[in-house]
Amino acid sequence: MKQLVLASGNAGKLRELAALLAPLHMQCVAQAALGIAEAAEPHHTFLENALAKARHASAASGLPALADDSGLCVAALGGEPGVHSARYAGEPLNDGRNNAQLVARLAGVADRRAHYACVIVLVRHPSDPEPLVAQGRWHGVIQDEPRGDGGFGYDPHFFLPEEGCTAAQLPEARKNASSHRAQALLRLLELLRADA
Q1: What is the pTM of this model?
Q2: What is the 3-state secondary structure (H, E, C) of the chain?
Q3: Residues taking part in catalysis
Q4: Model confidence at 157: pLDDT above 90
Q5: Which of 1, 66, 91, 127 is most open to solvent, judged by the fewest CB atoms within 10 Å of its CB?
Q6: 184 near 133, Cβ under 8 Å?
């Protein structure tokens, strides 16, 4: 595969995935550049949504497609916001409102454990019976006060004890080496090498 479609409209995700895929010398094209609309994400799991997005982009482009679905899972909230992370505070999408909703839901809650989850799916063609699936998790805790101006989504509130900072304070290269998306992509690369 020399070219594949990245099935996402999220600019932050596209930047991160393109940087992580750069060493493979694959040409990654955002689906929007090909005029492909975003797929619906009606499912309850990251896996089902990622698979639906990958199949949609592959069918519309005729190319292999890679899609991820990811989000923040907070232990004390039963895994919320989960697959609804981007729309936690409703439409229109807004990171600031989502973060405010999260902090409000955790008011008075002592257990702040959380993790980012990512599922990446690669399909070689729209009806691929054996899509490659890889997962990653990045553990941290939610803090009330935002810190840092890097990253996107919940990064300013996602504190990483082992780093001593939030995900929004991490240098981009460091985030790209340790994030949930990086972990999932490394696993995907292992699967690609085994599949070659």
Answers
A1: 0.89
A2: CCEEEECCCCHHHHHHHHHHHHHHCCEEEEHHHHCCCCCCCCCCCHHHHHHHHHHHHHHHHCCCEEEEEEEEEEHHHCCCEHHHHHHCCCCCCCHHHHHHHHHHHCCCCCCCEEEEEEEEEEECCCCCCCCEEEEEEEEEEECCCCCCCCCCCCHHHEEECCCCEEHHHCCHHHHHHHCHHHHHHHHHHHHHHHHC
A3: 69
A4: yes
A5: 91
A6: no
Q: Residue 10: what pLDDT?
A: 74
* Alpha-carbon 88 to chain mean position: 15
Could you report the per-residue pLDDT of 36-50, keeping only the tens digit for each? Answer: 999 988 999 999 999
Confidence at residue 22, expressed as pLDDT on a 0 to 100 scale: 75
Residue where the block lists tokens 């973060």: 99
The CA distance from 78 to 181, in Å, is 22
What separation in angstroms does the CA of 65 have from each of 27, 95, 139, 171, 187? 12, 27, 28, 28, 17
Q: Average pLDDT, stretch 107-112? A: 97
Q: Which of 63, 193, 185, 67 minimizes the C-alpha distance to 124?
A: 63
